[in-house]
């Protein structure tokens, strides 16, 4: 039972899964939306440009049907007539075609957006497999497409029947009209019937667009194991990440230990805490921490300090305060300036005394004045 539940695609697709699908050309598309956009834009184009197209047709008819006897027997006149027809019809039709092309592009990228995939263009053996072809022909997707085809035919046929029934008498009366009135009337009927007939496809679009979004999301759903594997691939395996963090800590610790010999003083707890402090006027206006640690790290800091003759001062409250309030390479807090200044003064006097240039300094008290907000 656990294996079955783990193999069930119950998880929503992750961002990476959606991005990989787009790279493969697998995005939500609705052919019905593109088809409806083309047909409706063509109908609207004829509606907007219908008057100018009707006038052009009228001039074409006048040119064709008012030829005299000399023009009929003139072989070059045929080319002149075709020139007139092209001049009158091409420009209005070109504007309609431009509108259709623009709307067709918008309609096809409205769902799923623009996407160019080289992987989708690559040949695949599965596309040439007869078994895969039969599976596509008799699969669920083929059944859905068949259902949509029947639905489109039914909706368009029923809409056409209603429109013809409604405009039947007006269509019959066209034969009794005179030019150019019957041309304008016929085009007006044709445009409105075309618009209404194309608009009937919107019923299919309203159903198909949500279905395509749902079906696309369903195809990309993931199992719980796939989500876990993707997380491991993206974020890294826990054991690898732990090892990387350990190496980073070790590297940082080695760099920190390399700074201990350059410190002016090591303030200790005396055993659990150790903080290495340096005062460099060219680098900072206040003393800063170059190394710090507890327990084993503190022991290592004291060991390196003894090996390089760095002064070690025991000041438990100050050592704890500096350790908890100051990061590496950071200046000590202003509230600890006085205590640290006393220790540095003692260290500098001790160095002079060891060189035989001054008196032996008075040992500083173990409990330095620490503000209450900095005590630990």
Automatic annotation (TrEMBL):
- Function, in words: Required for formation of the rod structure in the basal body of the flagellar apparatus. Together with FliI and FliH, may constitute the export apparatus of flagellin.
> What biological processes does GO assign it?
bacterial-type flagellum assembly; protein secretion
Q: Name one GO cellular component term.
A: plasma membrane
Q: What is this protein called?
A: Flagellar biosynthetic protein FlhB
**Location of the region described as Disordered in the Swiss-Prot/TrEMBL record:** 1-26
Give the protein family.
Belongs to the type III secretion exporter family.
Membrane topology type: Multi-pass membrane protein
Cellular location of this protein? Cell membrane
Gene3D superfamilies given in the database record: 6.10.250.2080, secretion proteins EscU
Q: Which UniProt keywords apply?
A: Bacterial flagellum biogenesis, Bacterial flagellum protein export, Cell membrane, Cell projection, Cilium, Flagellum, Membrane, Protein transport, Transmembrane, Transmembrane helix, Transport
State the encoding gene: flhB
